Amino acid sequence: MKNKTALILFSILIIALISLFYARSIDEDSWICTEVGWIEHGKPSSLPPTIPCTEIEKKLAVEQYLKENISTISPEKEVLGGKFYITKIDWLENNSGIVEYEDGHIALKATFDYEVQINKNDDKYSVVITNFNILN
């Protein structure tokens, strides 16, 4: 009976320690992007990000658009039944970037230019790829 009670108490202690470790590992002190800009969450040790909050949201919208539409945007088509997926995006200035993508058989790299507008009805971003050129 003593061993059973000791085992239960030891198990409760282990669960409590794991829970405490997990709770301490969650980053409560950070900057959060909101519609009014960067706001503190907790007490962050760093200064707010220098990139405007809306720029990050726009880039995320472009990234999502590229991921969902790379197969139709690319002038080169997939081969052997593969499906294009993006492996890397490098952001350049003036609403442009370089995207690397592949289908498991061929890997391609292309430059792209984009425009992003916000839809007034639902506050979502609308993305248009204005230029897409595969690099050699």
Determine the structural class based on helices, strands and strand pairing.
alpha+beta
What sequence of helices (H) and strands (E) makes up the elements?
A: HEEHEEEE
The strand order across the widest sheet is: 3-4-5-6
Shape: flat
Kindly report the average pLDDT value.
Answer: 87
Low-pLDDT parts are none
Question: Per DSSP, what share of the residues sits in E-state strands of 2 or more residues?
Answer: 25-35%
Largest sheet, described in full?
4 strands, antiparallel
Percentage of helical residues?
25-40%
By DSSP (H or I, 4+ residues per run), the number of helices equals 2
N- to C-terminal separation? Answer: 75 Å
Our count of domains comes out at: 2
C-alpha-based Rg, rounded: 24 Å
- Count of beta strands: 6
Describe this structure in words.
This protein is α+β, with helices and mostly antiparallel strands and 136 residues long. It has 2 domains: 2-41; 53-134. The chain is 33% helix and 35% strand. The chain contains 2 helices and 6 strands; from the N terminus they run H-E-E-H-E-E-E-E. It is flat and about 75 Å long. The protein starts with a helix and ends with a strand. The mean pLDDT is 87.
